[in-house]
Amino acid sequence: MKPTIRDVAKMANVSISTVSRVMNSPETVVESKRLRVLEAIEHLQYQPNAFARGLIYKRSNTLGVMIPDVENPYYAGLLRGMQDAAVDLGYSLMIVNTDRSKERTITYVENLYEKQVDGIIFASDILHPEYYDIIRHYQIPLVLASTNSIEYDVPSVNIDNEKGAYDAVRYLIELGHRKIGMLSFPYDDSISGEPRYNGFIKAIKEYGLEECATHVTYADHRFESAYKAAEQLFSKYPDLTAVFTASDEFAMGAISFLHEKNILVPDQVSVVGFDDIRMAHMYVPKLTTIAQPVYEIGQHAVKKLYELITEEKVQLYTEILSHKLVIRNSTQEV
Amino acid sequence: MKPTIRDVAKMANVSISTVSRVMNSPETVVESKRLRVLEAIEHLQYQPNAFARGLIYKRSNTLGVMIPDVENPYYAGLLRGMQDAAVDLGYSLMIVNTDRSKERTITYVENLYEKQVDGIIFASDILHPEYYDIIRHYQIPLVLASTNSIEYDVPSVNIDNEKGAYDAVRYLIELGHRKIGMLSFPYDDSISGEPRYNGFIKAIKEYGLEECATHVTYADHRFESAYKAAEQLFSKYPDLTAVFTASDEFAMGAISFLHEKNILVPDQVSVVGFDDIRMAHMYVPKLTTIAQPVYEIGQHAVKKLYELITEEKVQLYTEILSHKLVIRNSTQEV
Predict the structure, then answer these.
(1) Which residues of chain A does B28 touch, with a Cβ-Cβ cutoff of 8 Å?
(2) Counting Cβ atoms within 10 Å, is residue A196 exposed (0-12), middle (13-18) or buried (19+)?
């Protein structure tokens, strides 16, 4: 049988409310008692369940949001959706920027725990075992947004990345393009790397364009890296007429490179992005792209987290929202 | 004489540590005592000074950052500078997005207070009296970043906005432009409206181009609004050869409009932005702009707040960092 707060109190020879205080505001408990309680918690491997947490801990009506890179405009729309949903539900958001650093991410989880957030939304990065373990250790309700976990059973809101990429490439093929390349995230990025690459491969195979399968270069998440990847791609395959890029920022990198080489977009090369960030319609030319419903992903993630906090379970574990192809000015028929 | 925590304890007939607990973790104090303490605090108008706060409250090693619009790419660089400085000093950041809503801003101040942040950085918006009053009421150390206050005595880190605008316009004049317009923020925006407009006026007057003073249209902070303002400007003054815009996002709005009218930038019209957001060098054409040292503004704001928290005063109250003109591809000689 799992130990309860009563067992901890008994072993530490203190009252139940003292145990609660040790967990909630340890500075109000004298050290000798505090240490006895902590020892008992460790000895019994006591972990309050979600229900007990609700009784023991005060609700803070605050949700923690962990994003990997505040400079990436992708998160702007996501955060707006989260914020609007949070305000509707009477919650505030605390946003932290992990920089994809493991150390920083773990520190921030501890921080958010100390700040007694009622739950965490972990956005758009890979849920490494270390992250999962510590969030689970602290029993913080967790929802994934724009990402999902294959290893762990965590509620998530995302799109079908493979299908999105497939739709983008099929559109290029339907415009008559036969020499198509791709700027991809690293393949080992299981969130936006592998699935979008697979979508590209699926589309070209389906239309008998297997020779395009080698026309792929890789970049990390940044414009500068995409610019270089475009340079590599076009120096190897100068007669490409179209490129599918795994993000809008990559599309901008490709278009900037082509512009500097005086190659006209879309007249000579068509470019399709992915995401539909705010900048996509501000760019010259406006980007044709796969629109992720980022605002809705943010909104649904908050609602799902709220469901998890208040009902301790969610109806729909893995939620896949629809993307759509938005045709603007960076693509045209061959 | 100002009342102390001892006076509160005496009046409420409780111990000093109970008063401290009421302020720190009220849920650990029985209601009757808690109410007596709160009454005494109100009656005596007790406000712990910064030093007492340090003794009474635990330090959280967390700073709150309030920004007006998470979708505005200007904040990305600012936040990165803040984060790097915070990490160096052993602090974490909690970012909240106020949406320029008074109600939301005040709720967030209360929230950050409850989360026991050690200080707040208020970025890039006008410090309305309501905001100042509540932050002061809670005795939270405060620093302004990318903004400043004329009414209140609050440490700030900013640039010289008037001089920045002046430098941009002088550059256009030196390129030979004589028909120059401006896309401005509303004049009543005392942070980036009035000073940048004044810089424009100063430069054109200095060069005897007074007739340009009417060539101004206004937009709020968004691209869409700048696009419309560009439309107004060029329909009234179709023979302008240059535009100074009060932000890079405005420059993108103007360039998008001109591009759709088949007016070439920079061949027919030169455009200078302001800010040097990350997108400025990703745009087509790359933007000539006034570079704000946003990363450094963020860094310095955190360091100043740290100084204020640890030493209870700052050496340099009003810090003005240098901007610089960055010449790229959106401008050329007439």
Answers:
(1) 21, 24-25, 28
(2) buried
